Amino acid sequence: MDQPNPTRIAALVVAGWIVLEFALRRGLVSAAAAVGIDPGLVDALVLAIGFPLIAAVLSWVALKRGQDRDQWDWELTPRTLGMGVLAAVVGFGLVAGAAQIDAALFGLDQIDGTREGLSVATAILLLVGNGLIVPIAEEQVWRGIVQTELVDAWGTVAGIGVTAVLFAFKHVIVDLSIVRLTTLLTLAVLFGVVRHRWSTASSTVTHALINTVSTAGLVAVALG
């Protein structure tokens, strides 16, 4: 049996995620809007249900390609969880600075993630989906699978850096926008460092706290 190729596994998983997320968030949501279904609700459902399915499929692919489940490093201890919380506090400061750079590069009026006209049900679903479920799915795939393989193949700095660039790039493709590029790159590097230093559980806590707070802010504005 051939030895697993880390770069090939990472490339396959990255391509698979981009294709599947784009199909769901652009194709399915657009199709729903065309037949009169609330696209905001469908997008929230994609986040809450579609993302875990994508993560499950790509995790299966990685295992079939030879990755070991133990490499995902879901170490749940008070220390790993606590470091995830501490990293989130640092992350809020980094995001504030990165957002200022994005505003200078792309204009304040361009950086607006507010979703207008949300129903209460959609808002709750969005908060749970984007705040909690999406970070679990994304950290499993992007840090647990992709970063693991690239660090093994190219070393720590290159593996974390390339994973961060790819993670930001997939957001640019799916969002069809580069206005959050600096913020995305900053967060991706943070998540990568936290995961490498402590565990995927740690980076997931960091990711979930930052996503939950930012999503809650957008939901509050939309409902207010």
Number of helices: 7
Indicate the proportion of strand residues: under 5%
Structural class: mainly alpha
| Low-pLDDT ranges | none
Inertia-based shape = globular
Order of helices and strands: HHHHHHH
Distance between the termini: 59 Å
Largest sheet: none
- Arithmetic mean pLDDT: 91
Work out the radius of gyration.
Answer: 17 Å
Which helices and strands appear, and what pairs or packs with what?
Layout: H1 6-34, H2 39-64, H3 78-106, H4 120-154, H5 156-175, H6 181-197, H7 200-223
Helix pairs in contact: 1-2, 1-4, 1-5, 2-4, 3-6, 3-7, 4-5, 4-6, 4-7, 5-6, 6-7
Overview of this structure, please?
By secondary structure, the protein is an all-alpha fold. The chain has one domain (6-223). 80% of the residues lie in helices and 0% in strands. The protein is built from 7 helices and no strands. The termini are far apart.
Task: State the main characteristics.
80% helix, mainly alpha, 224 residues, globular
Q: How is this structure best summarized?
A:
The protein is an all-alpha fold. Helix content is 80%, strand content 0%.
